[in-house]
Design a protein that fits this description.
Oligomer: single chain
Distance between the termini: 48 Å
Largest sheet: 4 strands, antiparallel
CATH topology of the largest domain: ABC transporter transmembrane region fold
Number of helices: 13
Number of strands: 8
Strand content: 5-15%
Helix content: 55-70%
CATH class of the largest domain: Mainly Alpha
């Protein structure tokens, strides 16, 4: 489990693009605090004037009271709109940055995470972290400020009552949060199971024909049901802990409200408290207790957010694939594979060992061999998708890499179309391709560039592939 300090460090990095939005949320919250405390004072002032405890004109106090209500209403509307809009923006910014990082990360032949798990992290975990940045962290600062301001106000009116409230509520919060560590473990387990569920659904739908052919539907549904049952069981345990936690919080809240009410009753009987002051007591008690209760409610959400931060940190740890400036070759170059060796991570054997070969420009080369002989691996090395552990691959004398990939035409086995139209798929390599270029038949490419070289991966591979030249930039 990643340490809490490392999670907070990662959170600071994630917050960089959205900090000004968080600052605006804080500003709106501070205006709301000022309006709420002004409302307490206006209520006390109005009641004292109406009961004769204070000699002042009534209507100006009424108009001030109504003005504060209007300001509160406007601030609440603005705050809700800004919070909803900000969450969408923060979510989009984080998702785009992390999706780009994952998509452009270095590929070593095996993906570290299953696609369903990655999608789950980019969807649900980013939603949780976006909510933390756009709402919960600014809300925490606003809540602390409100607690401090209301406490100072109550300290002026009734110092002893404030200490009673703080002791009662602090004890309730401490008692309710004894389950912090257990809740964090449960949330981590729930998120992992949800990723497995998403992966199972994605793979089963993607390979539905295979599942149907093997009459494997019942076994897939059996596993799906088991995963769902495990999520339900862990969720039930989490809800049990939350119920106890909230019960303790509610007990502290009720005890504080009762203490304030009785304090005011005894004060009115003794003549030391006016009706307006008692009104202020009850309102200030809510403003003191509400922030403390809010802390209690935020703890489970914060635990969930820490779990999501851990999962996003694992995506951030993926190594970037260097984005070198694209190199466009003129003509068909030679391809030289010089004493190359490569083994996949954690593999027991070396796929390609001390392999050398020279592919001359204008020649067609057929590579054949049994499954696992390294045919597809060789193509990936030539494309610069993989880096050899030994030796080098040269394309026209230039080391193979991302900068040269735009010179290749690559036709993998099977259905490799992405969602969208045929046009959008054809434009993946060149978004600005003209209609004539998109509709040019394949044989024309060979006639146009007779010197263009081809590498054909022969039968026998479980993932046979062909590498043929692009008509405009042959290799």
């Amino acid at each position: 489990m990643i340490s809490f300090r490392e999670c907070m460090k990662a959170l600071r990095g994630l917050s960089k693009p959205v900090r000004w939005r968080m600052a605006v949320t804080l500003a709106i919250g501070l205006v709301r605090i000022v309006a709420s405390l002004s409302f307490v004072w206006a209520s006390k002032n109005l009641v004292d004037i109406a009961t004769g405890a204070k000699d002042a004109p009534l209507w100006p106090a009424i108009w001030f009271f109504l003005g504060i209500l209007t300001v509160q209403l406007l601030v609440i509307i603005l705050g809700n709109w800004w919070a909803s809009y900000t969450q969408v923006k923060v979510q989009n910014i984080l998702r785009k940055d992390l999706f780009g990082h994952v998509l452009g990360s270095r590929w070593d032949g095996r993906d570290r995470f299953l696609s369903g798990d990655t999608v789950n992290r980019l969807e649900e975990d980013i939603r949780v972290v976006a909510d933390l940045l756009s709402d919960r962290i600014p809300g925490l600062v606003i809540t602390l400020t409100q607690l401090l301001a209301a406490s100072v106000y109550l300290l002026v009116l009734a110092p002893n009552l404030l200490w009673v409230l703080l002791i009662l509520m602090s004890a309730a919060v401490f008692g309710s949060k004894l389950f912090f560590k257990r809740l964090r473990k449960l949330m981590t387990a729930i998120r992992a199971r949800e990723s497995e569920l998403q992966q199972l659904m994605q793979e089963s739908l993607q390979h539905r024909v295979l599942v149907l052919t093997l009459t494997n539907v019942e076994r897939v549904l059996e596993k799906f049901g088991w995963l769902q049952a495990d999520v339900e069981d862990k969720t039930r345990k989490r809800l049990n802990y939350n119920a106890v936690s909230r019960g303790l919080m509610f007990l502290g809240f009720q005890a504080g409200h009762a203490a304030a009410f009785l304090w005011g009753i005894f004060g009115i009987q003794a003549g030391t408290v006016t009706y307006g002051t008692m009104t202020a007591f009850l309102q200030l008690v809510s403003q003191v207790q509400r922030p403390i209760a809010e802390f209690g409610r935020q703890v489970p959400a914060f635990i969930q957010a820490v779990t999501s931060i851990e999962r996003l940190m694992e995506l951030l740890e993926l190594e970037d694939d260097p984005l070198d400036e694209a190199i466009t070759l003129s003509g068909a170059p030679d391809i030289s594979v010089e004493d190359v060796s490569y083994a996949y991570p954690d593999a027991r054997k070396t796929v390609i060992k001390d392999f050398s070969c020279h592919f001359a420009a204008g020649a067609m080369t057929v590579i054949a061999g049994p499954t696992g002989a390294g045919k597809s691996t060789l193509i990936r090395l030539i494309l610069g998708l993989l880096k050899p552990q030994k030796g080098q691959v040269l394309i026209g004398g230039i080391p193979a890499g991302a900068a040269l990939r735009g010179n290749f035409m690559y036709i993998p086995q099977g259905n490799s179309l992405l969602s969208g139209t045929i046009r959008t798929n054809l434009q993946l390599a060149n978004p600005h391709a003209s209609p004539a270029h998109r509709h040019r038949p394949c044989p024309a490419a060979s006639r146009r560039h007779p010197a263009a070289g081809r590498i054909h991966i022969g039968p026998g591979s479980g993932d046979r592939k062909k590498a043929a030249p692009e008509s405009e930039q042959p290799v």
